[in-house]
Amino acid sequence: MKAWHWSVTLVVIYLAIPVILYLLTRKDDRKPLSDIRKRKRTIVLVLGDLGRSPRMLYHARSLARSGHKVDLCGYDGAKPFDEILNNDLIKIHHIPLILNTRKLPFVVFGILKVIRQHWLLISLLYKLRGADYLLVQNPPSIPTLGVVRFYNLFLSTRTKVVLDWHNFGYTILALKLPETHPMVKFAKFYEGFFGGRAFVHLCVTVLMGQAMRKTFGMSGRRIVPLHDRPAFHFKPLSESEKLDVLRDFKETLYDDMTADHKIIVSSTSYTPDENFNILLDALALYDESKLDLPPLRVIITGKGPMMPEFLAKVEKLQLKRVSIRTAWLEFADYPRILGAAHLGVSLHESSSGYDLPMKVVDMFGCGIPVVSVDYAALSELVKTNTNGVAVKGHVEMGNTFMSLFSNRGKLDNIKRGAMIESRNTWDQTWVKTVGPLFDIGEYVQQRPDEDYDFSSSSSDDDH
């Protein structure tokens, strides 16, 4: 057979594969009339540790509370909260975690991992095909968005895909590689090409929604900002509850403390988008100050790849009136530790400038004010001198600590603002903003996108 014959044959086979898959699965994709009164079903997918994906857990909880059956998919790891584990409408599907047990070179392992992830995701989604909705976290973008697009085109065309944008995946890759690197450019193209055709795009800030229009050319009518809000278990503690926390963790986190101590809390995953040198240098300034300042107990929760580096830096500081403790907490204990603090700290430096730190939302839920490193979108959450203080660099952070702990009126003022924030709960926001997208309730006023400058003349997406 001539060479061009082989070429034509291969092209025909390549094009025939999705057509065959479509024909084979189309009959399973149609909803019989007898199923009209059945509960709606939503797949909630995150290619990450379920227990460390609070926003997706909150989505699953809200959907189940509204009567949806939920297939919750992600890695096994940290334990989700009990209302997820004990809910009969939520079924958890663990995605196998792929580890480099054979010590392969980074590039080789990365390629094999992505290939394996494609197969695992397609197999799982094929098993769950026919759902009414598929709610997906982004990032990670690769291979999630490509697989989801394939699923929606060929395996379950009736499913409405909702992407929940927590950040831009390509900007996270750009923390390790130059923005001009071919891999970063490919990741940006991949994210826009496969992510741009969802039924609806949720995003964590208004600024991110505007960037999605500008960067990826998305239709503004399909972008719905959903600010993170504290879930039900993040709430202010009474004075007696705070004393219970201090007593329960006296041997580990609150040892050798006096009544004069002020407690600062921060949480982290010890990754490059958080610069802990800012906090450590700020604490050093506080420690060296000549002012009459109270001693500090700084509690840092979490774990991650850069933790050993952080602990080594703490050892070298030799602070006198500042002491630091670290801990990895159970899900139920985390809100209690937050609620017992006088002040929260966020060191999150957004890779894109458009996302918001979930830890600040959690802290506000517990009614504690926050000092946060400033960046573009932060003002949508932290209002300086109202519910916290936004700072640039360690000098401003150190001076803020000194100002707040030497002037009770300033600390009390932002404490009041944080207590007001604690009343804005996830449940209230979700039902009003997102519920109608899943046929839960209806918009009683304007559509959510009409609150923002997202209008666009571009045509709507396919699905």
Summarize the structure.
The protein has 463 residues and is α/β, with parallel strands linked by helices. It has helices at residues 3-29, 54-65, 82-85, 106-127, 144-155, 169-173, 182-195, 206-216, 239-248, 276-288, 307-317, 334-339, 358-365, 393-406, 408-421, 426-433; strands at residues 41-49, 69-75, 90-94, 133-138, 160-165, 200-203, 223-225, 262-267, 296-301, 322-327, 343-346, 370-373, 388-391. It has a seven-stranded parallel beta sheet, sandwiched between helices. A six-stranded parallel beta sheet has the order 10-9-8-11-12-13, sandwiched between helices.
Q: What does it look like?
A:
It is a single chain. The protein is α/β, with parallel strands linked by helices and 463 residues long. It folds into two domains: 36-229 and 432-451, Glycogen Phosphorylase B (Rossmann fold), CATH 3.40.50; 239-421, Glycogen Phosphorylase B (Rossmann fold, 3-Layer(aba) Sandwich). It is 41% helix and 15% strand. It is built from 16 helices and 13 strands. It has helices at 3-29, 54-65, 82-85, 106-127, 144-155, 169-173, 182-195, 206-216, 239-248, 276-288, 307-317, 334-339, 358-365, 393-406, 408-421, 426-433; strands at 41-49, 69-75, 90-94, 133-138, 160-165, 200-203, 223-225, 262-267, 296-301, 322-327, 343-346, 370-373, 388-391. Strands 3-2-1-4-5-6-7 form a seven-stranded parallel beta sheet, sandwiched between helices. The protein has a six-stranded parallel beta sheet with strand order 10-9-8-11-12-13, sandwiched between helices. α11 links the parallel β9 and β10 (322-327). α4 packs parallel to α5 (144-155), α10 packs parallel to α11 and α14 (393-406) crosses α15 (408-421). The longest helix has 27 residues, at 3-29. The model is unreliable at 24-29 and 444-463 (pLDDT under 50).
